[in-house]
Amino acid sequence: STYTSPTPQCNVRQGAKKKASKPTKTGPSVGELIVKAVAASKERGGVSAAALKKALTAGGYDVDKNKARVKTAIKNLVAKGTLVQTKGTGASGSFKINKKVDTQAKKPAKNQIFFLL
């Protein structure tokens, strides 16, 4: 059998088109939106996950489409220590903003200055 070069119609590279790049969304991340929603609430026991989702929906965020993103954002914020989980486990329950993080972050800076002197 002899090899014949492919015809121009068969050439894959010639027919390949670049994929249209999706427009990147600008604006605050889900985590930032969640922190703002928790900070805005005056609830003593924290904000429930359901109330958080309602607040995000009211703010124009499509929660139904991005359920997994909201869940992971909540879990990450709790893991970082930005939010404290007052009730429940995982991404369910109630959440408060962690006030201890701010004071702890400021104190070591002062201590370091004393060590340098």
TrEMBL record:
CDD domains named in the record: H15
GO biological process: chromosome condensation; negative regulation of DNA recombination; nucleosome assembly
Domain H15 stretches: 26-99
Biased composition (Polar residues): 1-12
Gene Ontology cellular component terms for the protein in this record: nucleosome; nucleus
Function: Histones H1 are necessary for the condensation of nucleosome chains into higher-order structures.
Gene Ontology MF: a single term: nucleosomal DNA binding
Domain of life (superkingdom): Eukaryota
Localization, UniProt: Chromosome; Nucleus
Sorted UniProt keywords: Acetylation, Chromosome, DNA-binding, Nucleus
Name under which the protein is recorded: Histone H1
Family label: Belongs to the histone H1/H5 family.
Positions of the UniProt region annotated as Disordered: 1-27
